[in-house]
Amino acid sequence: MQLYGALLLLPAAVLLATFAYLPTVATLINSLFVPGFRGQPAEFVGLENYALLINDATFWKVARNNLVYALGTIPASIVLALCMALFVNGRLPGRGLVRMAYFTPTILPMIAAANIWMFFYAPQIGLFNKLLGALGFSGINWLGDPGVALGSVIVMSVWKEAGFFMIFYLAALQGIAPELKEASDLEGTSRWSFFWRVTFPLLMPTTLFVLINALINAVRVVDHLFILTKGGPNNATNLLLYYVYENAFSFFDRTYAATITVVILLVLAVVATLKFAILDRRTHYQ
Amino acid sequence: MSRRFPLSGLAIATTTLLAAGQACAQPEQVALTMYYPVSVGGALTEVIDELVADFETEHPGISVEAIYAGNYDDTRVRAMSAIEANDAPQLSVLFSIDLYELLEQDAIVAFDEVIESDEEREWLDSFYPGLMENGQLDGQTYGIPFQRSTIVLYWNKDAFEAAGLDPETPPENWQEMAEMAATVREASGGEQWGVMVPSTGYPYWMFQAFAFQNGHRLMSEDGTEVYFDDPAAIEALEYWVSLSGEHQAMPDGTIEWGTLRQNFIEQSTAMMWHTTGNLTAVRNEADFDFGVAMLPMNTQRGSPTGGGNFYLFKGSSDEEQRAAVTFIRWMTGPERAAAWSIETGYMGVSPAAYETDALREYVETFPPAAVARDQLEHGTAELSTYQGGRVRRALDNAVQAALTGQMSPEEALNQAQAEADTALRRYARSR
User: Which helix (H) or strand (E) is B64 found in, with range?
Assistant: First the structure.
């Protein structure tokens, strides 16, 4: 009987091991080496890469950027997604069209979306500066000014993400029993307190799910940086995974890239533990 | 089951027959894979596909799968990942300056090891020496020039005329460029910028041009040392920064490589510095009169070369390597080089290309097409060192920090020098 259970687990275990555990262990081992010259084997250096990392000003700047990026995108895209879902869940003319419009950014490939936005942001010829110009303001160099560039990237990400999260909220909203609304109408509950006391708590599992997804997305963002800024100007928009990519493929320093990856994994593990310890207990599942 | 069986039997029979047929028809079919980048405007993937199709018609024994892989960095990543996955391409077009790193990764072989006849050795000598500089090391040739460029100055003649400047005279030197640019800016009432030099994508490349025009070369011949903090380099960066600050002729902040051509075409700038590889795209899209000139000089003229070379990868059979050389020879032959230059604006890579009827006639009717070649005389190798990615990134950051006002040019270049020295320390020691 135990064998039977083990066999049932086997497919999942094999997949997990191949795509999660083995790479993690390999990364951990890699981070203890430096690459060799001209095809020579790598050299074991212990924790030297980690010592380098601690003194790497760029890494800290990139980590700080990523924190700002996460704080900028996650709450904004979740709130926006919820508002959009509530809006298109109601009765309004052309509902299907509005839903589609909200969802369209999600279907666009990231690279294509970034290419479009690059032209929106372009000084002189771009959409945003043309609009500002029409209102009599002088333009902003959205992606070329280190003070604004990260904000510009965040705005685009929120635009891209919110539509995706809206779908989950919409599905959850439609899963809420209409009897609750009827009952509260009989009681004379205001719309606000109905939302706050009934709808929102019932949406909590979805919010949790969306939150985790948003967090993952905030860490794994790399593609639109290729197009929009390449991490510049002067690392103003460089984020963790892009920095990993740069080290691995632009600088051919795989072991240092592995070191950064290990640190990211550790941080994510801590976040996951916190999530299970705190948030999950406050979440009400139906 | 019984009803499906004959069908699958038929399928097997057909496949076997087909396979046999193919084997008979083409007994020595060699399949090659190559990755290539596109970093300029225009539908270049179609041009490449046509060239490859022509080649396959002429050489039925060789098939080539040409895979477009993004910009230069993306293409390098694609090629290196393929190697890691034991699926190495036989050849690829990669950045001409990737040489040191490809060698460090032990990924490429020298053409000298693969070529056999004297005729082929002559072929190696048939290219402009200026274009070979980034592809050779220790007397061996690793890179064959293909989509090669220099930086040229595009100027809008209509804008010059409107500003009261002579539309046929581009700026000769730094001072003239700054003055002309400021004049345009003023005459347009702030509607039009005077000049734009891109500072994303390849800032180090543009900076190298400024530095070289100021009589300064940024790196040593053997790729183990860089000289970013030299007074001549600092002066060059100060001039670049002054175009926006002091002269009010260039926008603040960084200028995007990818949208700059559109800026020029929409006449929001009167001059731009850009790769000659964009020439044909600009020609097709601009609805005003424009000209192309060599970059302005300070103490001397100058532009680094740039662009992509063909490389041969390790791990393929002798037969595949021979086929790859056949393909590369065909692609870089005078006729093709001429056609490629006309389609794109990239340079004809050999003097013979400019002697073909096609390119001779083209240059006669459209003189800007010869500017990149003429400028080659004042060319210098593109910044290429060991640890090139880190070193270039350090310089990119310095240029951007100075242009966005985060640091003075001197501070920025001192920092870049320190970063580059750290990256290069073990190579400097091993000399």
Answer: strand B62-68
Q: How many helices (H) and strands (E) does chain A have?
A: 16, 2
Q: Which amino acid does the sequence have at B31?
A: A
SS3 B297: strand
Distance CA B35, CA B80 (A): 10
pLDDT at A286: 57
Identify the segments of chain A with pLDDT beneath 50. Answer: none
- H/E segment holding residue A150: helix A149-174
Residue B401: how many CB atoms within 10 A of its CB? 24
CB distance B275 to B303 below 8 Å: no
How open is the CA angle A81-A85-A87, to the nearest 5 degrees?
120
Tokens 């020295």 belong to which residue?
B421
Determine, for residues B253 and A141 on separate chains, whether the beta-carbon distance falls below 8 Å. Answer: yes
Q: Which residues in chain B are contacts of A144 at CB distance < 8 A? A: 199-200, 251-256, 404
pLDDT given for residue B9 in this prediction: 45
Which position has the token pair 């197009």? A227
Stretches in chain B below the pLDDT threshold 50: 1-26
> Which residue from A124, A126, A234 is facing B400, i.e. has the nearest CB?
A234
pLDDT digits (tens, 9 = 90+) for B121-161: 999 999 999 999 999 988 899 999 999 999 999 999 999 99
Contact B389 A124 (CB under 8 A): no
Task: Answer for the pair B256, B198: CB distance below 8 angstroms, yes or no.
Answer: yes
- Cα(A61)–Cα(B400) distance, rounded to whole angstroms? 16
Please check whether residue B387 is in contact with residue B225, taking contact to mean a CB–CB distance below 8 angstroms.
no
CB-CB neighbours of B145 under 10 Å = 26
Residue B188 touches partner A, C-beta closer than 8 Å: no
Residue in chain B lying closest to A233 (CA): B400
At B231 the pLDDT is 96
Q: Which of residues 165-184 of B touch A (CB under 8 A)?
A: none
User: What chain A residue is nearest to B397 in terms of C-alpha separation?
Assistant: A234
What per-residue confidence (pLDDT) applies to B7? 44
Q: Which residue has tokens 């895979």?
A: B67
Q: Which two tokens stand for residue B81?
A: 């990942």
User: Cα–Cα distances in Å, from A159 out to A87, A163, B48?
Assistant: 17, 7, 36
pTM of the model as a whole: 0.86
B167-182: pLDDT as tens digits: 999 999 999 999 999 9
Other Cβ atoms less than 10 A from the Cβ of A161: the count is 25
A95 touches A88 (CB < 8 A):
yes
What distance in Å separates the CA atoms of residue B172 and residue B47, rounded to the nearest whole number?
Answer: 35
Residue B1 confidence (pLDDT)? 36
* CA gap A282, B16 in Å, rounded: 64
